[in-house]
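EI: anyone free to look at a 452-residue chain?
SC: sure, send it
EI:
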Amino acid sequence: MPELDDLRATEYAHLGDEVYLDYTGAGVYAQAQLHAHRERLAGRAYGNPHSENPASVASTELVESARRAVLRFLNADPDEYAVIFTANATGACRLVGEAYPFGRRRGLVMTSDNHNSVNGIREFARRARARRRYVPLTPPELRIPDASIGTALRGRGLFAFPAQSNFTGVRHPLRWVDRARRAGYDVLLDVAAYLSVNDLDLSAVTPDFVPISWYKVLGYPTGVGSLVARREALARLRRPWFAGGTIAAVSVGTEWHQLAPDETAFEDGTLNFLSIPDVEFGLEWLTKIGRERVRSRVGELTGLLLDRLAAMRHGNGTPMVRVYGPAGTRDRGGTIAFNLLAPDGRIVDERLVAAEAAAGGVSLRTGCFCNPGAGEGAFAIGRGQLRGSSRWGLRTIDEYLERIGLPSGGAIRVSFGVASTHGDVHRLLDFLTATYRDRRADTTGLAPRVRC
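SC: here you go
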């Protein structure tokens, strides 16, 4: 396999001159993945898997092969773990939330640092009148002390946390999985921001539920995710409905149904059978490139950018950048959240940065990144500021920000992945220096925010 810089010029040449720095939002696909997809579809016809005709059987065989490939990639025992194909990680989280036996004796514990796809599970717990508890972040690195986890894990229920924060890049300790399970909790481990660069060995770390969006890991395909679940934990879930493909038998006259006896009981309707096989090729491709090579490159670029951002100064000596989360590379991934500061210390509105970065050919992300807990921690938004917010009757994010006294609606996020190069870092730094050094904060003419 060629060196990473050579791959950028060949397999990832479609990036062109663009500085792509949003790998936490979506990975970048290789040309080889597109060629493999086309060759497979050009080779024969594939049909709906819910049948025994030749086209259907061909699809079923490839889907089952992809299941086995996912388990191999995660070093998971097929007798212990099952792979359920979903539309994305959000769909995987919903499957757990809607079917988990929340109640008076089974509550929900979550870290404040969670994506909204995980935060949304609390609504199922709320409906069941189950206890809900968040474990707060601790500044300045926005980590969570082990002692706080131990205090929160009282009783039984579901514990949910990310292996890596999609806001700050913090890697939370995977040892929490075993700790929570020994305390009587099932564990949902969100690996969306973690898995594209890091290995997850399910023979060593044994969460009960692992939601995955494959486009974040592989760049392609979109519309395909997985819930990788321990079979023992899966058996405790109680689905509130059934659909085509999920049942072994059903009757209209008696309103009776029997769910399928395996993981297909959780796969609603017809699977994305034309794209699921692309997951297997993508995993082979990523493995062939070399996981350690990519991990080393991402760590190197992350350290370089953190050091350079910390050193950036205006002409009057004041800092140009405020980084949220760890200032170094210890126990953190290739995701960096920050704000730019004007010479007087005011935050440069992230909407301005988004617009000007786009005009300069730099793809980065701005906002709260669907992680309100980490955002509240980064901006030091306390419970007192939020008290009674459900009754404020606010209609827009800008009204909300004004009410709680924040000058900005979020941060700037850059993240690295398989095709990232040193040139990307240097072009980003050149853009930031040329555009914002000694420039005052200005929000004139910016469009209102319409979403988080």
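EI: The chain has a mean pLDDT of 91.
SC: 👍
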